[in-house]
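The material for today's practical consists of a large collection of protein records. Getting from the letters to the tokens is the skill we practise here. To make this concrete, we reproduce a full record directly below:
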Amino acid sequence: MTDCEVPYSQGQRAQWSSETAFVFSMSAAAVGLGNLWRFPYMVGENGGGAFIIAYLIALVLVALPIMMMEVGAGRLVQGSVVGTFRTVRRFGTLYGWFVVMLTIAITSYYLVITGWTMGYAVSAFCMAVEPFDDFTTGYNSLWYFFAVTVLATAVLIRGVSAIENISKILMPVLVLMIIGLVIFAARMDGWEEARSFIFVADYSQLASPTIWLFAFGQAFYTLAIGQGYLVTYGSYIPQQTNVPRACLIVAGTETSIALLAGLMIFPFVFTYGFDPGAGSQLAFDTLPRVFDEMEHGAWLAMGFFFLFFAAAFSSCLAGLKVITAAFSEEFRMGELRSVLAVGCLMIFLGVPSALSFSPLELSVMGMPFLDFMDQFGGTNMVVASGIIGTGLVCWFVPRPRIAQALGARSRWWEFKIYVIGRSLPFLAAAFILWNIL
């Protein structure tokens, strides 16, 4: 077989039960932290409405076609991210392992943040939700990180069906609760200021390369591009799935929930005088005050923080699934052994991020270690990874194979993916040179 011949795998592999199951599972994988936690704090730190405009442009013009390509590549080869890119081109193995390493780094701090959501859920059920600074006065970040990692390892042992069942039940309930909180937020004093912050843009800010870098980073992050999630999840979808349709639904869901998350959090930020640029702890600073002020807020806090934890947990499962699939196939490990090995690896690598929000206050370059990991890995490396992967597929896989991978009758998306994939590496190089010069 030559490098460009990419057949459907003939081996036996678990599958999502339907296209709908894939949509729910993929949405749950990215919604949890990419939108509820990261999107509001990125908007707050990067100019509000101007950032959202840059983000939507990056999402529609570039991120969505790349998303379709990555899902299609996984569907075509039906293997791990390393195996998929090795089939595309032999030196693609190096890129596949780069993606796995990047996902390991991102998941290590994802588990810490998911531990925060678990801690807040536990506190809510104990009727004792506290501000973030109080929550992190001890070593709660570390203990809850350990608990989440052990729980995620146990769920992964159950396989794809466990992820699917969790996603189908919890995602719709979480969306309904977010909508309810937005309705409540609309009655707050800071509602108009929040709307202006989100929807009124200072267009002069769009001249800044930095805002575009963070916008592309968030768009790629939101759709889980360049992290192996899409390739791995795509490898489990049935052959009759229409990839563009499924991806459009997921992207629409992601974007809607991201904007709702902003409308949920920023009215309270402005009402209570919080700093919108507070960083990664923004949601955890704001929401306890919200529920404390609401009638029956203690009961709503129970439901919300449990669902927030469930959505964040789904994101962690997706990242861990990428890593375990690669370990299992590349090292010829059984599923159980690969899951346990990855669980131990996460315990080891996640400790520095957990300790950055503890009495030790572990930091790098003047920022918490977790924030450094998110801004460096979650923006710069994710964008670079997505561009490299797209270039590999679109330069070395023939267009008919790309069309086969998409499973769609329309040639529009095939053409758009092909053009964007081939031109994006050169455009990215030009952007870097422009900023250097």
In short: The two ends are 44 Å apart (CA to CA).
